[in-house]
Amino acid sequence: MASSKRKSSEPFVYREFGNSTNPDAFERGVSEQPPAQHNLKIQASRKGRGGKTVTVISGFQLKPETLETLLKQLKTQCGAGGTVKDNTLEIQGDHKQKLLELLTQLGYKAKISGG
Fold first, then answer.
1. The domain spanning residue 49 has which CATH number?
2. Which stretch of DSSP H or E encloses residue 96?
3. pTM
4. Count of the separate structural domains present in the chain
5. Vertex 49: Cα angle to 43 and 53 (nearest 5)
6. How confident is the model over 29-45, as pLDDT tens digits?
7. Helix (H) or strand (E) holding 90
8. 85, 12 in Cβ contact below 8 A?
9. Distance linking the first and last C-alpha atoms of the chain
10. How far is it, in rounded angstroms, from Cα 63 to Cα 45?
11. Strands 88-92 and 82-85
12. Could you report the per-residue pLDDT of 34-93, keeping only the tens digit for each?
């Protein structure tokens, strides 16, 4: 009686997500650019957040670890919470002017977008 279980040594004909033994192969290569080469947009948004205002900063081309450290620094300066989502920073509350000043002091090119 033949076993229907697949042996682990048999090669796969098709594998959707590649080799799971090498997770570094899936990391996206992100080049760290100096702050002056970033064009950041700062805008306040309330869409999809139950009426709560969130300041969204987009346009980063940084590694996730660098974004986390920058977010922590900005959150402490604003006295608010926040998160990183899809290479954008979200800080709770309307802090457009304060974030514009902080980011320009850090050397980033930033401007306020939207009304």
1. 3.30.780.10
2. helix 96-105
3. 0.71
4. 1
5. 40
6. 556 777 778 889 999 99
7. strand 88-92
8. no
9. 72
10. 24
11. antiparallel
12. 777 888 999 999 988 888 999 999 998 888 899 999 999 999 999 999 999 988 999 999
